TrEMBL record:
One example GO MF annotation: methyltransferase activity
Organism: Caballeronia glathei
GO biological process: methylation
InterPro entries: SAM-dependent_MTases_sf (IPR029063)
The keyword Methyltransferase appears for this protein: yes
Protein's name according to its UniProt entry: Methyltransferase type 12
């Protein structure tokens, strides 16, 4: 199957519902991080991809220092610097660390390493901002349909029983390979894990922020290291 670029899967998707959801997610991400950052703050994006979020953020806030980390993607924007790892960043040097649409693909040891690095590099008063897909509730039907259309297949990785369980919020098992799927990801489990090390200051839903989570598509958390909360 022909590989589809990240922007064609998200903010420039041919599917109008997917395009709306991802553009709304990007707008919320920029708005949240902008409000968290004082002048000349440093923002690091974990799993930055080609740097589209940081590029968009930089257009709104040209004063910010923008650093991405993603070992799998070639940078596409000259104004974004890249770090080979979060380990090379100094303690207390980052105002906002973002991890957008990436934690659902991390294995437990990788998530543990991310949270440990976050607690080390975030400045006093700084924040970790996470967004992940909501894979339970009303959004699961359109999401699975979009993947089938995009992949030009009538096959779904969800069985009919798993689809029904997901719609009513009952957990379904995750596949062994987390890199290529969102199946079974549960933001509620992630929230519990993050809450062991961070105070979760606020949560937001996108693209419909004023409805229950099961009616929306993405889940945002603004987190502060417990020692700094």
């Amino acid at each position: 199957m022909r590989e589809i670029s990240y922007d064609r899967q998200t903010v420039n998707s041919a599917n109008p519902l997917a395009r709306y959801a991802h553009r709304s997610r990007m707008t919320m991400a920029v708005s949240l991080v902008t409000r968290l950052c004082d002048e000349r703050a440093t923002v690091v994006d974990f799993g930055a991809g080609p740097g589209f979020f940081l590029h968009t953020l930089g257009q709104a806030r040209p004063d910010l220092a923008l650093i991405g980390h993603d070992p799998y993607v070639t940078p596409a924007f000259a104004e974004v610097s890249y770090a080979a790892s979060l380990g090379e960043l100094a303690r207390g040097s980052v105002d906002a660390l973002t991890a957008f649409e990436v934690c659902e693909h991390l294995y437990p040891e990788e998530l543990d390493a991310l949270l440990a690095d976050a607690a080390r590099i975030i400045k006093p008063g700084g924040a970790l901002v996470i967004s992940v897909p909501i894979m339970y509730g009303l959004a699961i039907g359109p999401k699975v349909s979009n993947w089938m259309i995009r992949g030009r297949t009538l096959k779904s990785e969800y069985s009919p029983a798993e689809m029904l369980k997901s719609m009513v919020g009952i957990r379904v098992p995750r596949p062994a390979n987390l890199r290529v799927t969102h199946k079974g990801f549960d933001f509620r489990e992630l929230r519990t894990i993050v809450g062991q090390r961070f105070a979760i200051d606020a949560v937001h839903h996108s693209p419909m922020p004023h409805v229950p989570w099961w009616m929306s598509s993405q889940y945002f958390m603004i987190c502060r290291p417990l020692a700094l909360a």
